[in-house]
Amino acid sequence: MRAVPRLLLIEDDPAIRTPLLRALRDRGHAVAAATTAMDGLRAALDDRPDLVVLDLGLPDVDGTELLRMLRAVSRVPVIVATARDAETEIVRVLDAGADDYVVKPFTAAQLDARIRAVLRRGPAAATDETIVVGDLEIDPRSRGVRLDGVPVDLTPREFDLLHHLATRRDEVVTKRELLTEVWQIPYGGADKTVDVHLSWLRRKLGETAAAPRYLHTVRGVGVRLATPDTAP
């Protein structure tokens, strides 16, 4: 990452954009701005910022759709900054690939702290090698999964969850760790988010919590990924 972080702010409201640009620059960031989703996408691809701050209520394309478009071609960190505060919306956007979510109104100091926290995480250190667990193949380069040789269609968050568990195969991974490492949000009251995604992932792998093959819940602790013939 550069000595001076380069940020891209995608925000159409000048009453928010102008003071936020000034405040972030005062805090040592180099900040460019875009006022539409398509201009923001072009700027993200052409200028390769260190981080994107994204509003959802854009005039041409909804910010969630822009996030999906961006995630298809880039792993640049994205902090969503929006007035939408429904839990379902927050979960949906984080599942689409956002690294953090900030609800308006917020101060520039609060956003700056979130930016610094996301930038400290740095790029993912996971190996690019395909991970094989029994008949399950997980390829981080293509973000593809195959079970018994058949492709499995996963959402970005489901893939991240499965890949993290695979890198810790045969170990019990706590929900606290999953929220921190996969969702990249602080632990606290979000256990159901993990449970719901594990349920969806199990269904796509052809198993259930009552009859697990790969994903084994350890009650009160977390979950473990293991090959079917070695799991107790």
Write structural notes for this entry.
The protein has 232 residues and is an alpha/beta fold. 39% of the residues lie in helices and 21% in strands. It has eight helices and twelve strands. The chain has helices spanning 14-26, 37-47, 63-71, 87-95, 108-121, 156-167, 175-183, 191-204, and strands spanning 6-10, 30-34, 51-54, 78-82, 100-103, 131-133, 136-139, 144-147, 150-152, 172-174, 215-218, 222-225. Helix 1 (14-26) links the parallel strand 1 (6-10) and strand 2. The model has no long low-confidence stretch (mean pLDDT 88).
Map the helices and strands.
Layout: E1 6-10, H1 14-26, E2 30-34, H2 37-47, E3 51-54, H3 63-71, E4 78-82, H4 87-95, E5 100-103, H5 108-121, E6 131-133, E7 136-139, E8 144-147, E9 150-152, H6 156-167, E10 172-174, H7 175-183, H8 191-204, E11 215-218, E12 222-225
Parallel strand pairs: 1-2, 1-3, 3-4, 4-5
Antiparallel strand pairs: 6-7, 7-8, 8-9, 10-12, 11-12
Helix pairs in contact: 2-3, 6-7, 6-8
